[in-house]
Fold each of these.
Amino acid sequence: MPTVKFVLDGQPVSVDVPADTPLLYVLRNELGLANPHFGCGLAQCGACTVHLNGAALRSCVAPVSACEGQRITTLQGLGTPEHPHPLQQAWVDEQVPQCGYCINGWIMTAAALLASTPRATDAQLREGLAGLKCRCGTHQSILRAIKRAQARMLA
Amino acid sequence: MSALSRRVFLQASGALVVVVAAGQASIAAAPGAAVADLPAVPDPTQLDAWLAILPDGSVQAFFGKIDMGHGLEVAIAQIVAEELDVALASVSLVMGDSARTCNQGGASGSYGVSHGGRPLRNAAAEARRVLLAAAAVQLQVPVTELTVRDGVVSVTAQPARQLSYAQLIGGRSFNTRVEWNKAVGNLMDVKGQATPKSRDQYRLVGQSLQRRDLQGKVFGTLPFITDVKVEGMWHARMIRPPHAGGHVQSIDTASIAAWPQAQVVHQQDMLAVVAPGEWMAVQAARALQVQWSADGTRWPGHDGLHAALRAAPVLRREEPLRRGDVDAAFAGAARIIEAQYEWPLQSHASMGPGCAIADVRDGRATIWTGSQKPHSVRDGAAKLLGLAPEAVRSIWVMAPGSYGRNDAGDVALDAAWLSQRLGKPVRVQYMRHDATAWDPKGPACVHRGRAALDASGKVLALDFTTRGLSRVDAQFHEADPRDTLAGQALGMPSNADLGLGIPGESYDFAAKRLAWEVVAPLQARYSPLRTSHLRDPLGPEVHFGSEQFIDELAVATGHDPVAFRLQHVTAVRDKAVIEAVAKAAGWQPRSTPRGRKGRDGLLRGWGIAYAQRNDTVVAVIAEVTVDPATGRVRVPHVSVAHDCGLVVNPQGLRQTIEGNVLHGLSRVLFEQVQFDSETVHSVDWASYPILEMADAPQHIEVVMIDPTAAAPSGAGEPTIRSVPAAVANAFFDATGKRLRRAPFTPERVKNTLAQQSSKRNTR
Ligand code: FES
Ligand code: FES
């Protein structure tokens, strides 16, 4: 089995798994992360979203071999309770999640979006978040939180 | 001897048992049982089954329901902290563990606070009473001279004389009996001798408090059911028949030779692939070649479904509401108005497919489940495995939102069965297609509304009938394996029951008949189209018809829809929410559609609907836009007036209401299970689209009406039932056309707009 090496949340890691194993399964099983989540395995929901070199990636359909030498960031690496990403802070302030199973998709996608388009309008945000699902219907809170974080990041 | 002197007497005698007032309850102040040694199935008649004070004085409350993320955890902790007079932070909850919590029915019917909180409130009040009595003895003052603050009892006049709850009982049991009402599930309640606080004494209840599951969710550290790992566990994927009435005929195990460790587990139609690694199990399950036989079952397809419902024989008809002589009113009517409405099958389509881990060995079973009814998992698994319920422990772990009977109960029994077969722990996680195609569905139905009018246009009688698939074709819990895929795949007959629902309203028409009729399921058992409870069972479905019909009556008789409702509802709280929502939305009276095309090319309209649910009542006004070019319906603004009695946590309530609105919009605008005569085509998010961010409203206005003296009556579901009809009525206001069939897909909208005029009796 090939060895794949990459940087996960700032730490170098190396795993021996079949090259076609989706990154999501490697993160959850071999590397023991309690997130991201499996929602569809089809790149249709976002529950598995991580960053690959800062860009949002649906890890359920990305073979681990594509991560060789790359920088992978998960929700845990984005921020911590001591040093939260502004979006994470806003998610707490707005009490966004219901079940919270969808959270990786929204925060990781919004983080990449705000990094590339800091002044994204409401319409741009909605467009940039297309494809993400939240079955609990927390969309209003999500938008409030993103706008709150955006204001903080621009200040 | 007075109560006080008796206590003192007992203390003086050296027996460290404190007998309280009536003499029946006691705290074993002498070394009592350690909290951890309590019996495996809690006894509701023991205060210890509800509460424990730990050695450090913190409080553990045992809650036989669960919190899927509505903030119920903090609401219950608020109630317990309130009654016990401790800090909120010192109360933690154990939720939905069958060995540690009483069977309060799991998450059910928005009863979390109203019913679920009741025994906890009473138990906490009783615990406080017992603790105060013990303190009175030790401090040698009457109870009336004591004050409690943050878990410390002090003599009011001499605050330095104090005892903490930790000192009084920390780590030991109460050993106090409470009176149990013998109910199991939502109605389970206990009472002690104490009277809980009255509303004016509250300092915590009624405040918006921060939920305590958020940090773990937001920073990715809170384990979900999918994250439970048991030493030595294997992974499994289930394999279901690809077409109607399919049965396993033969299995080509050579087809998975590429994964030598993977195994097939098979009995009758129960079929799974297991492997030591998860990805291995997924791949092998995909590769496995199976020959299926067909037993001739044919479905009507989603387009033929409603005609089939109309044609099918009625297995059961009920008229839960009957008033006056409806038939005579129709016989003598000057005018009859009639319309029919159609609602599709819908999927729970939870964000994450069902997942469970089971460890069944040596005649005992432990099951980690995301089911919203973990005690039902215990009972169902015990029957499936041939074990006594006491030998099965079911532990709830946070899971993707479930909204009724989703796939979580099925997967738990699958895991239990596989673990028993293999003799090792097994984790089953469904794939997306299992979750969307095979979850129990919300029932499809057709509604027929009829009204008899006299010559002046007065409504003499209302006759409303819902006919559809049963809401309990699969029971709303998995306490019997016959209601699960595992049981049915193993040849057990279904345990189907027949039930639907009627509108919740208070219209005053002199004669009124609200009825339901159930027809046979589309396939008798082991069916992807079995039907059960989906969020607010029958609420959105029924009111989509009934509240549109009320609008049709208003228009037909030349009345404004808000004024018409106000004129005819009789319940005071119903009137209040309708008035409040009209005010909040700035409602402009109209008796004909007001919709006009704006400069943006969109048609714009407003619609109202209202409904009762248990003791909660909600009115909703939706503003919709309809794009005649694309057929897209959007809902930029929604106003909600909500009365669920006492509001325990306003911010949590607002978000629960918003979630209801979004879920309701998704169901009326997007959702329908697509299937043909033998195959379910809705298998993922592409084939079962739901509402996304682009279609989320710009604004949802919430007015909370908090009538004094009304107990909390539930908010998890009532709002959703009025949302579809409010949208449908707004669609009419915008276009002058009725769309009586959900969902409002672009194609259907364009077809409706292309029709010459609004014809009643047709779709
Ligand atoms: S799990 Fe990857 S997008 Fe759904
Ligand atoms: S919070 Fe449950 S799916 Fe988004």
Amino acid sequence: MNNEIFLKNLFQAYYQESNKDIPSVSMLDRREFGFLLWDNQFMQRHLGFAQLDDLRQFLIKKSPKHAYSSGSLYSRPDDNDMENKGYQGCDFVIDIDVDHFYTECKNDHDLWYCKECGTNGKGIIEKCPKCEKLKITRIAWICDKCLDIAKKEIIKLIDNFLIPDFALNVEQMNIAFSGHRGYHLKIVDPRIRTLTSDQRREIVDYLTGHNISFEILGLHEKTSIFGLLKDNKGWSNKIMAKLEEILRMDPLEIEHFLRDPHWGNLTALRVNSLLNYREDFLEIINGKKRSIWSIEGFGLPTWKKLLKAVVKKVGAEIDEPVSIDIHRLIRYPGTLHGKTGFKVQELEYNQLDEFNPLDESNELIDPIVFKSKKQITQKLEITDVKVPATKIKGITYGEYDCGEIIEVPHHVAVFLLCKGVAKIV
Amino acid sequence: MSISYELVKHYPWLPSKKIHYSGIASKDPVDFIKEKIAEYPDGELVDRIFNIFKTAFENIEEIKTYKADELNVYLYTILKILLYINNSIPIANRVANLYSKHTYNKLIREDNDFNLYSICKDLELEIEYHDKAVPFGLIVEKDRRQVLQTRFSIHYIDYLRLASNLRDDYRKLVHNALIKGFVLIEKKDLTRLLQEVVRKKLIIEQTKDLSSLDDFKNKILEIKEMRELNERILGEWELKKEEFEYSFEIKYKKGEKVEESFPPCVEDILMKVDEGQNITHIERLFLVFFLHSLEIPIDEIVNLFAKLPDFDRKKTEYQVEFAKKKGYSPHSCSTLKSYSLCMAMKYKDKLCLEGYHSKKLDSQRKIQHPLFYVQFKQYRKHKPKEEVKTKTKNE
Ligand code: SF4
Ligand SMILES: [Zn+2]
Ligand SMILES: [Zn+2]
């Protein structure tokens, strides 16, 4: 059978069975909806639903591959012309997706292959090491490690920024597992809805620490280097508190952080000077000594490099354009993600900590909806060059090579089919 | 909460005006103006309005005739009507800049915290006043140590609404102390935000519905005094406008007019400056470095900036002189491109987009630096004559 028809039928069965569980979103009738259907590459946008039931019926009827709704509110959400839609404001949407930032585990499970010469390997590369061509296809995968990192980012965002700095409460946050590589958070607050894209960018900079100027925070050189102060409220405090935390780690860990090209990227020599100076520096941070930063080999540029790495630790890795653009569509909660077959799962703040998308024990919030009690299996043939190993529900499947015939449980089969790396035999 | 009658006379843009002067809004504008003109037969009303325009056109930062009296309230309303009917963005910007700057200077002298607080409340800004000053930072420099503290904080939504327009880096949210939804803000910075509120109240958007605007305009200008006043204003504007077209004479090397040879990236910033729009720090620096390179006198550069909403003469003088001393050269095209300041596409500038043909290298070359653009244009100005000569020779 054709993969797409097979999947569409499954999606349809899900939407029939779980129809009453598809949740509503606030002011549903003023949201624009968009869908990608199985037999059409183009997104069907500019749809509107007067009530939740209409949406539910649509989902049963069309059983789309992907389903989205707008963060924005419109008086005429189904008008094709943006000008005539009657924009009324937009929720603040945050997307955290491991696709957009570095995680160490990607070196283990992300694959690439060269379309020119067929060479393949693990990790992330720019050009083929053999033929030097840039025709690289990436197979980005997921694992519990990177999903856990994404989860920690969203918790950090809530605990370190949204609650203490923006005084938002968890009832105003709609949190969801995206069904693939990350989490969404929608802030529902009538006042935030009024912000322009420029103003949203300011919030984004605040959440990420991007475009921060250390000079404005006080870093300057006047015969000696004067550093940032922990006593200064705002980002100075965040940076210095984090730096202190880092300096109190095990020296080996400190070194790892400072040397890693994705973080400090400092030379061994400089790392050494910093380690030697550690105790003094901790005293400075805590105001016991004047804030003159003098470490051998550390000029302003080196300090900035170090501070930048700290900023990256403090800030949340959010996908900026999603929060800035006011006409974006985001995945609708309760619907299925066509690239995994997982459900976009709404979560309470207090469920986040324990939540484990690939092996969730609480049935009510388990995004893996196609697991069967009767242990049905499915035969597949691998169609992609290589398929990384995947651990789902505690069992590891793969790696697989092209042409391999495998028999896997139903929910794993759905995942591999959705990923587009296998076909039904 | 309504604000005192007295305060409205000082700051006639306050929303509470509606309560104390409920008559203004309910009356037909024509009747209202006629009534007020009759009330002040000595021409004070008209003179004071004219003076605001004149001052604005002359780029002076203070309205000498400003008085916190009842007339001030009526005058403000009529001023707004005039800005509306003339439907000219540059005029409105200029008046908005002057009026808001004047307000800033007035507010900054306001040593009564309660007044400032009431004004914010009246504007429906979500503001907190702390009984005890809250310390939020420390400035430590070589021989200076200063504690930063304030009694005011403002909700971040209101803060963003007003500050994001100002574009100063230090006002960015990420550089400020945001605690429990409120940004701790020093009085002078809060006042600067109020200046922005006032500016926004006066600027206009070009009206698209010209026919109803014309109807209204004709009605207003049927009043003899208003017609005369408006003619005086527009006359003054015509007079000054020519000076504004880059109100400085640029001389480059042998007394040549160089501004005709400016590249689009510079033109664009000058246009914004000329319209009194806010410009970013980078834009400002670039412009200063660029003008320095052409040896434009310092006071001409400073005067140029006088049109900006946040102009501070002393500060600007210092910055411009400092830049001169340091002798920085202006940014290159590639740097400008990375800041999205290259305007080659926007202005479809042929020289920028296509480059020029270099005889020496016998190849097409790209413009790499705005200063080279000027040089090239200057050079080209003389070239046609030579070319004509060569042609005749060949024939
Ligand atoms: S190409 Fe260079 S000179 Fe021309 S507009 Fe761009 S930055 Fe300015
Ligand atoms: Zn290759
Ligand atoms: Zn991973």
Amino acid sequence: MTQSDNNRSSQPTIGQVLDERGVSRRRFMKFCTAMASLMAMPPMMTSALAQNLRQARRPSVIYMPFQECTGCLESLTRSFSPSIENLLFDTISLDYNHTLFAAAGTAAEAARHEAMEANWGEYILIVDGSIPQGAGGVYGTSAGESFVDQLRHAADGAAAILCVGTCASFGGIPYANPNPTGAVPVSEIIHDRPIINVSGCPPIPAVMTGTIVHYLTTGGVPDLDKYGRPSVFYGQSIHDRCYRRRFYDEGKFAKSFDDEGARNGWCLYELGCRGPTTYNACATVKWNEGTSFPIESGHGCIGCSEPNFWDQGGFYEPVTSKLFEDRGQIGGAAAAGVALGAASAYAASRRKKKRSETAGEEESS
Amino acid sequence: MNTGQLLPLRVKTEPPPAPGDDILGGGVRALGYEIAARLETLHETGESGAIDIKSIPMAAAEFESFRQMLGQGEVDFTLELDGQTRIRETAFPGVWWIQHKDPEGQVVAEHIEINHVPDLLRAQAEEIGQAADALRARLNGET
Ligand code: SF4
């Protein structure tokens, strides 16, 4: 029996951890009900979900931050308490996260190596940030090791890798043109481990909780979309679930942030909203403990959960009809709206052209 | 240990809307028929069911007409479980409206359960076994 086998069988189940902490069955059922709803499971599956989750072994989690801004971790930790999601995050064994650790330097690195060795082949590796490969990886080093080498080593012993945020998932802002550090997403370096991308800049914390719950209860990777994201959370566009959608379908668009349309809550498409090409759960799960999401606050979606979102042109230009066609995911019901959207994009480009012509005339006069 | 605290029962009944009151839109009516079908199943086979209403997009007016359609039964109480959980029996026995809120008061889950007693309230076999041991220990002066 290896050390890892020993460790695995000695890890308590999540049920045992919850019992030790005095978490009542009903409190746990409430958490599972919220998770089932989030994961679009039938409510009557809640008992089965709860049973499976209680029986799952408490997972060891190694959280490695690389080329990132710590926004993802901020988003995650700020929402964990006192929301019910902390029920799960109190039960996992977060064996390494150098930002949250009280220990630093050699002591923190030793703890990481120890935890990895003890749970080799079993831990969940959470990666936050892209990985700079330029100039031999010198743009990102820690404890004398490049991020590339650290990732390769940590990935070797991982059961699965959870990429938190758009940087780890798709390269994100460091990957944006001209990408001076040669940044890449995890999937460009690791090819032999299951990778789940939880994109977003930052990602929605509840989506991450749901993904971990799914992994623990089924022991497997959830159904993923073509970008490696859990389909249950990224299966629908922001536009499909947007409460302003009826204005889009009626062709009612705000033309500036302070016009009558904006005040009436009309569609923000012409102001650059990327809801039609962005797949995420913001419109349903929302932000800040379910308070709202950007479109509800009067600003269009900037598409932060999509690959290359930073290099898709200005945030205040309408997405083009070509982008719709590229995705090939327009439902029949949306077709009328798409036609309006395309017409709207054309109208906006005409306005822009007109503005630049007027500016040109003014300059030359 | 947080065992959840039962608050006093509040009893207030609302009759279901009178026949002929046409307060229902198509979506609400469809939900009503689904609940009726599940009630029949519960009655005939004992099989319970539930509908996640948080995931069904409803405008505020539709939601209100859905609430009115189901009315209010005799039971209405609140549990304190990391935020409030309210369990209401509707005017139709066997149809329960369950709403879970987080500590900030945001609704995190809401469903209609068609059951004799909501699952959440039922003590589980494992717990009952442990309870017997705990009670004996108390009677023997061990705790
Ligand atoms: S374009 Fe944006 S604001 Fe308009 S309906 Fe779609 S997601 Fe909503």
Amino acid sequence: MELFDTATVLTRVMTSGVVMSIEKSDRELPGLERLLTKRTGRAHAVLVNSRSAAVHAALAGQGIGHGDTVSVPELSPKDAAFLAWLGVEVADEPGPAAFEHIALDAGRAHLLDEQARALRAPALVVDLTGLGFGPAAALLTDDRTVWARAERLKIFGAYDLRTMWTQEESETDLIPGVQFNYRLSPLVAACARMALSQAVRPLTTGAPS
Amino acid sequence: MITDFPSAPLPLPSAEEVASELAALGGEALIPKELRRTLFPVITKEDVFNLMLSQRRAPEKVVADFAEAYRSYVGAAYALPTASGTSSLHLALVGAGVQPGDEVIVPAFTFIATAQAVVAAHAIPVFVDIDPRTYCMDPAAAAAAVTDRTRAIMPVHVHGLPADVPALRALADKHGIALVEDASHAHSARIGDRVAGSFGDAAGQSLMADKNFPLGGEGGIAFFATEEAHSRAAEYTVRHGIDYGMSWVAAAFGHSQLERLPYYDEIRARNSRLIADTLNSTGLFRAPYVPEGHVHAYNMYRITLLPEAVGLGDLPVWAVKEAVHELLVAEGVPAREWQNTPIPCHLPFTHRAGFGNGYPFTLNPGAVRDHRPEDFPATLAMLDSTLVLCRELRSPVEYERALRYADAFTKVARRPDAIRKLVEAGDYRRPYEKAARLG
Ligand SMILES: Cc1ncc(COP(=O)(O)O)c(C=O)c1O
């Protein structure tokens, strides 16, 4: 992304005064969520502050935790170490993947659409760190429960990110046991969104708008 | 252009307004609806310019320079910048030597992240009550909770007031265990000339944009007294494939904010004094307690209600509190409870699913307790009888706004008759009988 474009985005968000991820009036996080769901063809996006956070969200979203076994073909040594830390075992026998992943950088950002459409796992980890604005990632899914659980993992079980108050709700199994602050910053989200929207420009002939 | 520039100024305070009818009973609110927004953080041209310049630098360097500048301000020996306060606490515990299954003593009153960071370290939080005056961990309660498996004591400098560090340090030394601070509320808070974050063997601190010292979004920092503790934490993230890195965008914003932190600190201290003087003259309200030699950072400002001072001593204090809360909110003062339930009574610590199948609680079943709120009487007494201001004392809260907040407390305190009426007509419950709230 051009320095000038990044400068414009950062200045625009700072002028709005909203740099907090739990601010009700934030527009940047929902904006990036919309762009990612549209590009990947998935129904829901959960934005988080790193790749390992997205892997955690992908597993916890499906109710996979300590002591469980999953199948993940093509697991990198780093992701494997992280799964071991979560206490999630990896099956020797191949099976349907618990999650698949895409890592984007400035040169490959335009490939998100086709890569995402070729993948089938119930949870898709999209690593946005390579775009250059610091650690950032997203979990994409069609499953509302996966989304709901992952959202609660990243913000201490609260079901309303904008108010962050109560943990009590009718479906207590959506509330994670261990809870983190995996929230992404609006300034980072705004830059990532700009980088992703520019990446599609050369391909706009007939591409979905 | 979407801008945070205020749309209109507040009118100057006036004695007639303070004497007028309560807003809840049909009078004019002291702070009109359209003028209630408080801005935070203060974002200036310096922040914008610094971010522009930072774009041209290596991201690691932007983050490292920020961490070094702030480490030096705090006076801690080593620092590790992180993605959030929670991750900084996790790494502070790891650096301090906490191992899976260890017990870590934490206060029952804090933000839930303090206890969740212990679980993240695969350890077990052991909850103890607070001191009734400071609202920080009670050293005697901590002493009573130490066992063979206790590896660390983690006090929180609640709302920005340093905990009783001398007593807790002595306790930790006596048992050969670590003292780990949660300094998330306590930027620039001091005991003597030492700054919070530099007291313990390690410390974690949130720097998210709603703290006194805000980064450009989410962030945190862990501090360590020794190089060994610092490397232990740094290596841990690599070994386990955990990404806890801070974004350069958040760090660059923090660097220019750091230059202005002493100014912000003075504004908060000034506004706190101003409101304290008024509160202490009302009878009904009492300002926060600050022990000799401690500097409170006032990330939050917890106000005690004394119903007996205005002839309401026969009513339950929590009901008086709730009625007063309604009256203050109607005047345009965004007072809050900030928590209503001891942390051990929140779902994650009653169900104890942890990472799944009860891990890490299963590693040390002897450390696990099924708590009831009544196990923490000092916490409950505080929840029953106090209200909190959060952003309302921070820069750029205008002087006239601070005066209007003070006036609102005066206006409400003059009306015990209205408070009594509300309590008698209302269906109030104790705070912890309602759904547990995170903030
Ligand atoms: C006392 C305390 N500890 C820890 C945290 C967690 O920090 P963060 O939200 O940056 O993860 C917070 C607040 O948010 C807090 O108030």
